[in-house]
Amino acid sequence: MSSISNPTLSTLLLGHKLRQNQNTKNGITYFPTFRRHKIARCAVDMPYGGNAPTFPRIRVWDPYKRLGISPYASEEEIWSARNFLLEQYAGHERSEESIEAAFEKLLMASFQHRKKTKINLKSRLKKKVEESPPWIKNLLNFVELPPVEVIFRRLFLFAFMGGWSIMNSAEGGPAFQVAVSLAACIYFLNEKTKSLARAFIIGLGALATGWICGSIFVPMIPTVLIHPTWTLELLTSLGAYVFLFLACTFLK
């Protein structure tokens, strides 16, 4: 108590302690430093999901309202809303699960709607065919829809023949290309019908029909749209390629 009340004595004692604790090295005096102790924070003090924000509509029942989109939103809008929300609330597990659950529910509903629409479309077409006149039913009995791969392969073949004929239009007529196209059409028909005679008749009929239609409609095309090297024979052969393609692809 006496040292505290006497400022002179307190100053002398403090100077004496500092002199005891000081460290002199190379003429430079160092005083001891005090370490700072870090206070460990408890994991309970951290918010759920770290610092990630919480999705505010996590308990909204309607998936459209949960994602913040219209009930008439397209699949692209649903995907965009889902990606945006997942990016905004990334790191919060419950928010991500809520967003994904709403997205999956809407995606499943969209898939079921497309499936139902497709079934309804087939039913409507079937009903239209049943209600059509007898001659249309008889005509449809000669038509079939092959796989998409077959359609594209044969379309590429006849398109190649058409391009080949156009490239050689200045040198000569497309007689060789027409003959190759006719032979390909007969081959495909024979492979389908298992009858060479039937395939030959259908192929020649398709060629004749295409040639006649081309001879009728090609002169109606304005000359401005026709290249100077494109002759009537070339344009008529292009129409024949179309009929040959249709015959060997869609006829039974």
From TrEMBL:
Keywords: Membrane, Transmembrane, Transmembrane helix
GO biological process, one term: chloroplast organization
MF-aspect GO terms: protein folding chaperone
Membrane spanning stretches: 173-189, 196-218, 230-251
Superkingdom of the organism of origin: Eukaryota
InterPro entries xref list: CPP1-like
Coiled-coil residues: none
GO cellular component: chloroplast inner membrane; chloroplast membrane; chloroplast stroma; chloroplast thylakoid; mitochondrion; plastid thylakoid membrane
Keyword Transmembrane helix belongs to the record: yes
Protein's name according to its UniProt entry: Uncharacterized protein
Lineage per the UniProt record: Eukaryota, Viridiplantae, Streptophyta, Embryophyta, Tracheophyta
